[in-house]
Design goal:
Structural class of chain B: mainly beta
Oligomer: heterodimer
Number of strands of chain B: 11
Shape of chain B: globular
Number of helices of chain A: 0
Largest sheet of chain B: 7 strands, mixed
Strand content of chain A: over 45%
Largest sheet of chain A: 6 strands, mixed
Structural class of chain A: mainly beta
Order of helices and strands of chain B: EEEEEEEEEEE
Order of helices and strands of chain A: EEEEEEEEEEEE
Shape of chain A: globular
Largest interface: A-B, 25 and 30 residues
Number of helices of chain B: 0
Chain lengths: 113, 113
């Protein structure tokens, strides 16, 4: 069965510093991968997605993610974080049958001034 | 503006009562989904519907029921059989039911007293 692991529950980063959030997946075939962001008490907003092609994917708000098949990873990065990036981030993989997503447990990002 | 609306944002119910959460979308999407989110956990799929008048159980359907009488609407009923109903509930939709990006509503926080 497909699974998604986000090893870091919390990450604290200073404003202006770089950010990398880890995501590892377990999936037999080429995965369809997503990163979503959730502000407190809000729904999820799609940051970016990988279906095929270029393994470096650009998203909204200055985020990017790199698909590495050999490491079963899809890590999210941002070169310079802003205070507004404080939120919870979820990695997800699309399951083989039907348009159903399996989510990781999420990583909460805190931004220090 | 097109989007997904969920109402109410906060809902309180006494134990043993059924409660229905509303989800409406005007995106003309065929597929709709209900997820449950608990602190420290990712989202878990309750029910999904790929087309009007049809729906399937997700991973944690016990104690929940849904209907899909209209394309725009996918209400979720939390029944008294759900043993731990207090959670944040998120509705999502996608253009079609296969390999497509899901877009999320703002969520409803249900508290059972």
């Amino acid at each position: 069965a497909q699974s998604v692991t986000q090893p870091d529950i919390h990450i604290t980063v200073s404003e202006g510093a770089s950010l990398e959030l880890r995501c590892n997946y377990s999936y037999g075939a080429t995965p369809y991968l997503f990163w979503y962001v959730q502000s407190p008490g809000q729904g999820l907003q799609l940051l970016l997605k990988y279906f095929s092609g270029d393994t470096l994917v650009q998203g909204i708000k200055g985020f990017e993610a790199e698909f590495k098949r050999s490491q079963s990873s899809f890590n999210l990065r941002k070169p310079s974080v802003h205070w507004s990036d404080a939120a919870e981030y979820f990695c997800a993989v699309l399951r083989a049958a039907g348009n159903k997503l399996t989510f990781g447990g999420g990583t909460r990002v805190l931004v220090k001034p | 503006d097109g989007g997904i609306t969920q109402s109410p944002k906060y809902l309180f119910r006494k134990e043993g009562q059924n409660v229905t959460l509303s989800c409406e979308q005007n995106l003309n999407h065929d597929a709709m989904y209900w997820y449950r989110q608990d602190p420290g956990q990712g989202l878990r799929l309750i029910y999904y519907s790929q087309i009007v008048n049809d729906f399937q159980k997700g991973d944690i359907a016990e104690g929940y029921s849904v209907s899909r009488e209209k394309k725009e609407s996918f209400p979720l009923t939390v029944t008294s059989a759900q043993k731990n109903p207090t959670a944040f509930y998120l509705c999502a939709s996608s253009i079609e039911g296969e390999t497509d990006t899901q877009y999320f509503g703002p969520g409803t926080r249900l508290t059972v007293l």
